[in-house]
Amino acid sequence: LAGAKRFLRRLPHGAAYLAVTAETYAPSHEVWCRRLHSETAGRVPCRLLIADNATAAAAMAALQADVPCLSAALVIEDVRAVDGALLARLAAVSVGHYACLAPAAPARRCPVYVTPVGV
User: Fold this and answer.
1) Residues 6+ apart with CB under 8 A from 108
2) Model-level pTM?
3) Who's near 109: CB < 8 A, 6+ residues apart?
4) CB atoms < 10 A from the CB of 115, how many?
5) DSSP symbols for 71-95
6) Cβ atoms of 81 and 111 closer than 8 Å
């Protein structure tokens, strides 16, 4: 999660949600969230979400249950796809539409993307 944390520390503001399942939860997840909040001086609060299973759909369902008015989300399914240019790519897209933000994405699956939520 180090790459994701480096990216999140660069944000001027936002919120991070770390989705885990009951089976994959570890106390280190809470530590990661607390450190992110501290290292961003409170600009990027972090919360743990417990998802029903280890899929992006389950994580998004848990996010929508926690933040029902959210309009869009940046989803990081594979932290290895987070690079130094992600913030610039994020700034260049409209949050009202799906956009793959991975520097090089496989043909069928994007590891980092912006997606509308609850529409």
Assistant:
1) none
2) 0.81
3) 77
4) 17
5) -EEEEES-GGG--TTHHHHHHTS-T
6) yes
> pLDDT (tens digit, 9 = 90+) per residue, 47-101?
999 999 988 889 999 999 999 998 889 898 888 888 888 888 888 988 788 999 9
- CA atoms 40, 11, 52, 60: torsion sign: positive
9 vs 21: CA distance, rounded Å: 25
**Phi, psi dihedrals of residue 70, rounded to the nearest 5°:** -65, 135
Tokens of 8: 């999140």
CA distance 74 to 80: 15
3-state secondary structure of 9: helix
Question: Could you read off the pLDDT of 65-80 as tens digits, one per residue?
Answer: 999 998 889 898 888 8
Rounded Cα distance between 86 and 33, Å, is 20
